[in-house]
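Z., the sequence and structure:
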Amino acid sequence: MAANEVPSETPSEVRGEARGETRRKASRYVVPVAVAGVAAATIGLVPALAAAGDPDLPEITAQQLIEKIAGSETQTLSGTFKVSTDLGLPALGGLASGLGGQGGGASTADPAQKLTELVSGTHTLRLAADGPERQKLTLLDGSDEYSLIHDGDDVWAYDSKSNEVFHEKGASEGPGAEKPEGKELPATPKELADEVLKAAGDTTSITVDGTARVAGRDAYQLVIKPKQAGSTVASVKIAVDAANGTPLKFTLSSVEGGKPVVDAGFTKVDFARPDASVFAFEAPKGAKVTEGAAEEARKSQKLPENFEKDFGKEFGEGFGDFGKGLNVLGEGWTTIAKLDTGAPAPKTDEAPKELQGLLDSFGDKVTGKFGSGTLFTTKLVNALLTDDGKVYVGAVTKDALVEAANSGK
């Protein structure tokens, strides 16, 4: 056991069970993909030591570093951010447009479509933030730029390549903007850290592993590793600004090795308040402007009072019926979601032509006590779709999925 890990006999007050609910849309031909929940766990209590060549910073424990992150008061920043993603998926070029993702009159500036580019390859972004009401993200692609600006109630997106603009009004007025009823949020960093500790278990090691320089800033390295066998996650590393507690870099590595699944961080950062002009936007002359669905609905008709609240309730009840077929197997890093669709799995040769090659390229036929099915794999999340319509998904190894299906649970 590492020197800065807590033994499994951790006091009961730092133990608990991390729970969460996942909402996702079902599609007949879309490969099931889920993001594994990370269970907060064993907190290292021994101070970190700086490695040779890294900044010499005051000693700090993992618990103290978590409190530092929770207590960060960073509201303003600007800088350059680089993100590299390698899920081990085949090239997806042209798939979205082939399936109608760019068709049907949709704007190429729509964030729901444009930002999906970040799920693969390496991208450079410019970021700016001035509190919760103003943020700007610019995706650089050679000489072309794509900008997404949130300024109060307005969200603007501009694609310089197509000279198209997407606009959504009332972005901060959605149902998610209000605090959930009956849910008291931690009032202090210490309380938030305590909540993390209460959700801790012996499935994970959380330690401070030295220091680093990120974007010219001194940082501590918080490292999260599974203790359970069978997870596809090797480690999660977060570089935390030593001065203000702002996360500067995030690295997610797979047990398969090679390039990280996600490696994202600032290459340059400034915590001064950006000029107000950074968030100002006016559609360029001649640009095609597309209004978002919410704005179009407002223009066409007046929605009934409490529409969003009532709709959310009805949607939730409907989703509850869908969730009756959902079962969660295991715990921590080896959690597997099982969904019984109640219908035989569709044959890949019935899928749209644009999808057939994709499905065949990373879908492998497997057999076991459960019968037969198709295993879809990435470097992080794997999914088993049995021929009788059951779906097993998790950030676990292929063998773990087959074993879960064989168990018949």
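Residues 29 and 351 are 6 Å apart (CA to CA). The domain at 12-16+35-301 is CATH 2.50.20.10 (outer membrane lipoprotein receptor (LolB), chain A).

Let me know what you think.
H.
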